[in-house]
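Protocol step 4 of 6: structure prediction from sequence.
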Amino acid sequence: MSVKKDELKRKNTLLQQYLKAIDTMLIISKTDKEGNITYVNDLFCKVSGYSKNEVIGLPHKIVRHPQMPSQSFQNLWNTLNAKQSWKGVVYNQSKEDKKYILKNIIFPLLDEEGNFIEYISLAQDMSEVVEKKNALRKEKQKLKDILNHVDSIVAMVSIQDKLLFLNDKFFEIFEYDTFADFKAKHECICELFQAREGYLQTVIDGSYWINYIVNNPHLEHYALMLDKHNNETIFSVTQKLIGAENEEFFVVTLTDVTSLHYAREEAKAASNAKSEFLRNMSHEMRTPMNGIQGMLSLFGKSLSSEKQKLYFEILKSSADALLVNIDNLFHFSQLENGKVALEVGAVNLVEELKKIASIVETENKEILFELQNDSQISECIKIDSLHLKQILFNLLNNAFKFTNLGGKVVLYASILKENAQRTTIRIGVKDTGIGIEPSLQEKIFESFTQSDNSLRKKFDGVGLGLSISSQLVSLMGSKLKLESQVAKGSDFYFDLDVEICQKGER
């Protein structure tokens, strides 16, 4: 007997612990057969705001919220009277008239003969969870309302590529009436993409379209689609990953750029036509100019008087200037058409700069010229020597052109940083000339531009030298920069990151 008593005591102890655990976690109440409260636990009192003494003996409807439909309670009692447990959500009201929401299960307790003794309710407070869900739903609706007023198509796509939302703009452009209408026919907006090179496809280079956009943020992405009138429409496509309440999804924006695209194509065609015209014109003008220069050279040898020789020098100088302008037009047209390619080879930069300095000193003897070379520059670097010379001659010609007699022009090169494989060298031309207004310093690199257009009346040139130099420097992976002060001079320079090579290497 004592063994059975001990076992019964042990089981009773465990049962009390189970009940305590349940009592701690759940809101518990009991009622008699008429629905009057006979027991409530501490958590019931905490949530409802009533003390035990205030509710014991009263109908359970004391905590019923007015919004709770009466039909729900009818269903509840029908289920309990059928001697089955009832599960559902109940809206209750606290003593302070605050609404709280319970996830409820109610059991009918029966005696041995199946008669009702009482009812026990076990509930979990879901108020905070429901409030958060409602707040999230409201925020989503607010977001959708905002997106419906955006003048671009906006789609929400889950991480698993499930289409969650399309804004009103989509239905303005395409033939579908509602989101449900679209979803009945398609799983993905990408199914509307037209197969055309250069545009997004469902799968690109082995990647799904949205993953391709995510993995290539540096690229511009376009989709070609047919609108409700079967017209080809071009969209610029961007995406952003949004996270909310442990839920992540992509917001994909498709902006109609069809008009912009065709305008850009027309502008490109016009630019190509202009460049082709300039190229042909410069070529046609260069041929007779070569003949003129040849004849001038012969003609100059036959002159005897000083006056004739003076006129000849003026004529030859004008012809040389015209040929320079023709050559600049040709180079400009080549650059605009993307027909200029770098030819990188092994170069001794110091020696190349000395050759340039020698030519410049011979042609410009009335203005002080100085070459400043960093003695630590490697004897062999990989660079496009031909285009480097073109850049520097353009910069030097400008410097001498806009520097008064007695002024100074400097060609310089210095090391900024270097390791065993590569070196960064700053190359530039500075002068003590007229300088450039701060407001004009960016504009100076545009085609057919001088810092002051009135200077064309005083100096030769069509304003292409700096534009050509700037574009060539860009091809080399750098940027032509300028520091200038009016009446004090200018410094044009660029930094080249180049490979160090072995002497004798090609």
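Step 5 (inspection) to follow. Confidence is low (pLDDT under 50) at residues 454-462.
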